[in-house]
Design a protein that fits this description.
The protein is mainly alpha-helical and about 220 residues long. The chain is about 70% helix and about 0% strand. The longest helix is centred in the C-terminal third of the chain and has 36 residues, at about 185-219.
């Protein structure tokens, strides 16, 4: 059975599914705490996205390598220890790189260990798949998570401060919507992106259904 799993091909869909079809934020609604809390600026959103992606890739990769050696009875506890170890490394790395970003992200860096997206990916995917496919899947899911945070952070900073990455976009006459930098602004922007994703997916489903009907009529 294990030998059969090793033969599973790695396709582009393995990477792209985490960005679009199984996006952890816009489709699966996972990791909502950092999504709403640290996306008040584009810089914070990018830093949290990259930190989470690094922990996701490293932890799921190690879980995949050790999947045949970890007893089923202690697998969840083992996954949490592995994830916590990499979160500690990322926590110290961010402190060393930029103390301002570390202070801005606050306790949400340590809370990566409780991110259900990472633990769920370790249990549902890494514990069953070979290393190569697990790493590609983790990169796709991490890219989807980072992209979602950037979407929220860019809109919130643009409307809340008239800037993107600290660069002024609107004229001085623009009156910033300060609420966008506050927690309620995170809910408003997230709701807007969810509506957009739902509308796009509905259009895709209608086109696919119309294509199937046309194919059936042609026969």
């Amino acid at each position: 059975m294990a030998a059969k799993r090793e033969q599973e091909p790695i396709t582009m869909d393995t990477f792209l599914s985490g960005i679009w079809r199984e996006n952890p934020v816009f489709v699966m609604l996972l990791g909502m705490c950092p999504v709403l809390a640290v996306t008040n600026t584009t810089e914070n959103a990018l830093a949290m996205g990259l930190a989470t992606t690094l922990v996701l890739v490293c932890s799921t990769g190690l879980v995949s390598i050790l999947r045949d050696f970890i007893p089923k009875e202690v697998r969840i506890a083992s996954y949490i220890v592995i994830i916590a170890s990499f979160v500690t490394v990322v926590d110290y790395a961010i402190q060393a790189i930029s103390l301002d970003i570390y202070n801005a992200l606050g306790a949400f860096i340590q809370l990566i260990v409780a991110n259900c997206m990472i633990l769920g990916r370790a249990e549902a995917f890494a514990s069953r798949k070979p290393l190569g496919k697990t790493l590609i899947d983790a990169l796709g899911v991490g890219a989807g998570f980072t992209l979602a945070l950037l979407c929220l952070g860019t809109v919130r900073e643009l409307l809340g401060a008239g800037e993107i990455l600290g660069i002024q976009v609107f004229a001085d006459s623009f009156e910033p919507w300060v609420i966008m930098l506050l927690p309620p602004g995170g809910f408003f922007v997230l709701a807007g992106w969810l509506l957009l994703f739902a509308w796009i997916k509905e259009r895709q489903n209608k086109r696919a259904a119309a294509g199937k009907e046309a194919t059936a009529d042609g026969r």
